[in-house]
Design the sequence.
């Protein structure tokens, strides 16, 4: 019973991805391109060389963080749409710590900086949480407003107080996250993301607290009646979700960008939400889908250079995956369709006897 | 300080307020129709982006901003039909699907723009809709300029308010509509076609949201860029909540946000000392504070957000 | 209320006064007593029922389908409903009366059709059948009625309420100054029509809401915190009013719902919830499933796919396996078939015999009469009478449920 359910859950996103690529291929053909050529460039761009593979990991890292943030929040029934703002605030805290705390060994600075990023992200995430618990406010709008505030604040910082040089951007951080394995340079940030994914997986499925958190997301009233600390769990979900995104921002700063500038963290927030949904709210799924999105993003530029097709085609394929995956999940959950599935397995059981 | 007390300044400010409140008002009313039928649609931002593109492109090609508005409406409806099908017929979670639209529609818009205009960074501009001052009334000092010297879309937006009020409170069709949002099972048992009403609501919502977006690129600014909507769809959502799901309240909320937006722009010009980012934050912070202090727990239609399945017991 | 009826008007705009007159005269014709200017949520359930009927008549209905219409009516209101039905049939209108209450079906029907599992089993004329035969047809086998001992005195109280009030001004969702106690090893049944404060009472003795006035003592101690967690930790178990909304997590498996309350117990987890032992969870759930005869294909099945009866058994298993000191059971057999109902009743009686106090809230008067050692009647948020469960004075209780005393007219 459970395996059948799990099978369906995995099949839906896979089919969605396949269908989206098909539609994308048709779209490419319509504007005069060659789909096979286009996709081969895409593939080459993502996997063609050691440095390409490394870059794909680099691009996947921030997506894993925001994806995990969204996954964790949604498991508690909470829509954290503020991952972008939390991501940015994490980076802001990190740059501030890096510029203030000088003269200590790099490793220590990294640890403090990333922790600071987590705290900043957690604080930025707790604001919609508190408003939701005390005033019943819809957290989506609050968190989105905070996104804009965070991005504008970052803009103010790198154009003003923290600016270095004539271009609007901050100075670079000295403590940097290394890349491991000299053959294929996997960024340390990617490893950190995987560790966090594992921790979240364990928490959700192997601890009683995680179990209770999931019940709050599935049926808040029943969770309350059964004595679970609903408000506390909701608050935890906001804080942890924000912290994860904050760590993501910090890692992106120390591992890839090294400085704050226009466009830092752009689009990661909403993409994270999409990744969480397609990944069926499972940390493992989230990592896989985030990697897929990274493949798309990395390969898109190579495709554009090679064939002249705009990267927007890939954006559309990405968006189609979301549309189809969510519709697909809803479809298989329809009462009539569920009936079809039970009848199918019921029949085979009877024949087995 | 003296500058603020200047009548001219106030007049300009109010004029700006009316113009900037318009897209928020139209889109908020769009959402009102949708939510009254029980569909929470947070894909407004995405629909606006697509409507903005459609309006811009059509206006650019045909040189007719009114066709642009029409195109915006049609495109808004098409996008929302995807949402409608998936949430009404498939029963997908409305909020999740609204987010999907928010990701999908702007990507589509961006794609079409790049295909048509190529990939470069210069902004193309098109002809703006011209203002249509109402004779006599627009000659009234101060108020005349503020209220009656606008493009027709602005007038449309504000006329929607009394129209919507009358529709929901005084007509039979409006009452049926509301019933669908409050208690669909009862409505169904009375012979109201719930599914059809919900689809109709989605058409209205998509159309108006598309018009709201098209307004941005045909009457407000004459260019299209990826960030042209900048969260107005979400501000419109908060206007619905702040306005307690009533057309009059929504009008007040939209005007408030329009005012803060107009104010912060003026302050940027006047006050070159303060960095513009801090001023640009004002509308968003204002939305936050207003929600924090005046937002109440769900006062909206009771069956909001839940899918309707006929056989459910 | 006018608004609901308004919708049938043919014109585009609504003429308020004309419609009001029409409705009032229609109501008078069928002796339907309603207060037309009030909002539907403000009136009693019986009155809401009358509005529903008036709605149908206003639209010119020739066939009236009534689905479990007496679930929320007092005996006296049921009489009133039957009078209306007889008037309608006298006018050659047809009525389909769907109910599981055999007594009523036998009283009002001319013809009776029995459905089971979606199929028509038989159609009989009223004069040719009796309750026993109907019951047989309904469950397909001989029904054995059970008799059990009633408890007449208790030694100590598990929970006691003194002058407790909540939402005082509401007649239908408030509690006004009630004093009540449930003793160890007894079943206290709350009789009363749904919507007289029973939901609030249940929520209060399980910690979902807290009283605005008055005192509640649990195990003779003041209650530290009105949260469900405290009550659960103090030995209170709850079979809630709405099993799907309040009791079960529909998309979680049967196994997960069964062990929901045992997550920190050492048999299931290490370190009070830091590591869940999956095999132990399975074993525990299988035991509960066998003990309570829960029919499902596998414990990994999603709970929402089970029948109502089996879902209720999951809740029963989960709550009773905690060996509670107080069991709060609200409409525990609502929507269950005869066999499942019997099972639930047996388990509740077993609990009582083991020393558990049971607070039974039910709109099914027969159930309350059958199980209760003492019966308290709730009307408009107040306790209007407490009676012995052994040889209960049915007529008096019935009147109390409608808010009237012996000697007052209908």
Sequence:
């Amino acid at each position: 019973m459970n395996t059948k359910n799990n099978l369906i859950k995995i099949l839906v996103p896979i089919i969605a991805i396949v269908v989206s690529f098909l539609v994308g291929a048709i779209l490419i053909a319509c504007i005069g391109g060659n789909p096979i050529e286009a996709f081969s460039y895409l593939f080459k761009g993502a996997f063609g060389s050691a440095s390409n593979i490394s870059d794909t990991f680099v691009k996947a890292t921030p997506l894993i963080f925001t994806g995990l943030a969204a996954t964790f929040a949604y498991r508690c029934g909470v829509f954290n749409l503020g991952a972008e703002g939390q991501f940015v605030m994490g980076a802001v805290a990190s740059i501030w710590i890096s510029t203030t705390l000088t003269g200590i060994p790099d490793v220590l600075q990294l640890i403090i900086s990333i922790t600071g990023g987590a705290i900043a992200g957690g604080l930025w995430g707790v604001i919609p949480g508190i408003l939701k618990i005390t005033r019943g406010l819809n957290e989506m709008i609050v968190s989105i407003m905070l996104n804009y505030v965070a991005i504008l604040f970052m803009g103010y910082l790198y154009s003003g107080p923290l600016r270095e040089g004539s271009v609007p951007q901050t100075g670079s951080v000295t403590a940097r996250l290394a890349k491991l394995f000299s053959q294929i340079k996997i960024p340390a940030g990617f490893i950190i993301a995987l560790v966090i994914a594992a921790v979240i997986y364990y928490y959700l499925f192997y601890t009683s607290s995680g179990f209770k958190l999931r019940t709050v997301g599935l049926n808040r009233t029943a969770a309350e009646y059964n004595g679970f600390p609903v408000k506390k769990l909701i608050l935890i979900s906001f804080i942890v979700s924000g912290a994860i995104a904050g760590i993501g921002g910090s890692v992106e700063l120390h591992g890839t960008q090294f400085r704050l500038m226009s466009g830092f963290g752009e689009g990661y927030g909403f993409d994270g939400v999409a990744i969480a949904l397609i990944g069926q709210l499972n940390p493992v799924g989230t990592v896989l889908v985030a990697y897929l999105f990274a493949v798309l993003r990395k390969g898109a530029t190579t495709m554009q250079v090679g064939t002249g097709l705009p990267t927007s085609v890939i954006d559309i394929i990405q968006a189609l995956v979301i549309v189809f995956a969510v519709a697909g999940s809803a479809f298989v959950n329809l009462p009539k369709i569920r009936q079809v599935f039970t009848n199918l397995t019921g029949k085979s059981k009877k024949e087995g006897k | 300080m003296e500058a603020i007390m200047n009548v001219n300044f106030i007049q300009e400010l109010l004029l700006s307020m009316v113009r900037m409140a318009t897209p928020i008002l139209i889109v908020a009313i769009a959402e009102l129709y949708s939510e009254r039928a029980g569909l929470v649609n947070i894909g407004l931002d995405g629909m606006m982006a697509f409507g903005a593109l459609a309006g811009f492109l059509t206006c650019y090609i045909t040189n007719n901003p009114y066709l642009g508005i029409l195109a915006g409406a049609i495109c808004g409806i098409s996008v929302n039909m995807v949402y409608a099908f998936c949430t009404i017929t498939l029963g997908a979670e409305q909020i999740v699907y609204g987010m999907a639209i928010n990701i999908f529609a702007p990507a589509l818009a961006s794609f079409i723009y790049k295909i048509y205009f190529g990939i470069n960074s210069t902004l193309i501009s098109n002809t703006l809709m011209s203002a249509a001052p109402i004779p006599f009334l627009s000659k009234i000092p101060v108020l005349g300029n503020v209220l009656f010297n606008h493009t027709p879309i602005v007038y449309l937006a504000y006329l929607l308010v009394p129209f919507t009020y009358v529709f929901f409170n005084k007509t039979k069709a409006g009452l049926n509509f509301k019933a669908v949002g409050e208690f669909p099972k009862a409505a169904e048992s009375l012979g109201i076609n719930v599914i059809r009403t919900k689809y109709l609501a989605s058409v209205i919502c998509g159309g108006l949201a598309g018009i709201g977006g098209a307004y941005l690129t045909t009457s407000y600014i004459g260019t299209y860029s990826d960030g042209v909507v900048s969260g107005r769809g979400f501000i419109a959502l908060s206007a619905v909540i702040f306005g307690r799901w009533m057309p009059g309240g929504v009008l007040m909320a939209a005007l408030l946000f329009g005012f803060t937006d107009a104010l912060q722009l003026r302050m940027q010009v006047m006050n070159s000392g303060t960095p513009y980012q801090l001023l640009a934050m004002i509308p968003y912070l204002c939305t936050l504070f207003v929600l924090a202090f005046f937002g109440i727990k769900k006062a909206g239609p009771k069956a909001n957000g839940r899918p309707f399945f006929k056989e459910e017991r | 209320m006018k608004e609901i009826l308004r919708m049938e008007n043919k014109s585009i705009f609504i003429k308020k006064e004309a419609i009001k007159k029409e409705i009032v005269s229609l109501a008078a014709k069928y002796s339907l007593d309603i207060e037309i200017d009030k909002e539907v949520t403000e009136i009693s359930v019986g009155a809401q029922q009358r509005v529903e009927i008036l709605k149908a008549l206003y639209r010119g209905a020739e066939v009236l389908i009534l689905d479990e219409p007496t679930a929320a009516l007092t005996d006296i209101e049921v009489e009133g409903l039957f009078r209306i039905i007889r008037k309608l049939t006298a006018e050659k209108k047809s009525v389909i009366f769907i109910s599981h209450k055999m007594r009523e079906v036998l009283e009002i029907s001319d013809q009776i059709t029995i459905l089971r599992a979606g199929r028509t089993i038989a159609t009989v004329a009223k004069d040719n059948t009796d309750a026993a035969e109907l019951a047989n047809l309904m469950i397909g086998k001989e029904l054995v009625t059970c008799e059990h001992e009633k408890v007449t005195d208790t030694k100590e109280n598990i929970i006691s309420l003194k002058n407790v009030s909540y939402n005082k001004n509401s007649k239908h969702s408030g509690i006004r100054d009630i004093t009540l106690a449930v003793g160890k090893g007894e079943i206290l049944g709350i009789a009363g029509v749904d919507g007289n404060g029973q939901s609030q009472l249940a929520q209060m003795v399980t910690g979902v809401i807290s009283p605005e006035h008055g005192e509640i003592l649990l195990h003779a101690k003041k209650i530290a915190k009105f949260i469900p967690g405290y009550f659960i930790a103090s030995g209170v178990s709850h079979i809630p009013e709405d099993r799907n909304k309040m009791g079960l997590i529909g998309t979680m498996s049967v196994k997960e719902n069964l062990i929901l309350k045992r997550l920190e117990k050492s048999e299931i987890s290490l370190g009070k919830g830091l590591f869940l032992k999956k095999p132990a969870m399975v074993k525990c759930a299988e035991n509960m499933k066998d003990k309570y005869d829960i029919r499902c294909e596998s414990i990994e099945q999603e709970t929402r796919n089970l029948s109502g009866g089996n879902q209720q058994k999951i809740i029963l298993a989960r709550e009773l396996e905690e060996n509670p000191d107080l069991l709060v059971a609200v409409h525990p057999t609502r929507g269950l078939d005869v066999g499942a109902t019997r099972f639930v009743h047996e388990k509740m009686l077993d609990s009582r015999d083991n020393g558990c106090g049971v607070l039974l809230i039910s709109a099914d008067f027969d159930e309350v009469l059958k199980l209760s050692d003492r019966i308290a009647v709730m009307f408009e948020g107040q306790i209007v009478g407490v009676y012995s469960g052994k040889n209960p004075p049915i007529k008096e209780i019935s009147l109390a449920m409608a808010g009237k005393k012996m000697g007052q007219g209908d």
User: Anything to note?
Assistant: Residues 2-117+133-294 of chain B form a domain with the ABC transporter involved in vitamin B12 uptake, BtuC fold (CATH 1.10.3470). Chain B has 14 helices and no strands.
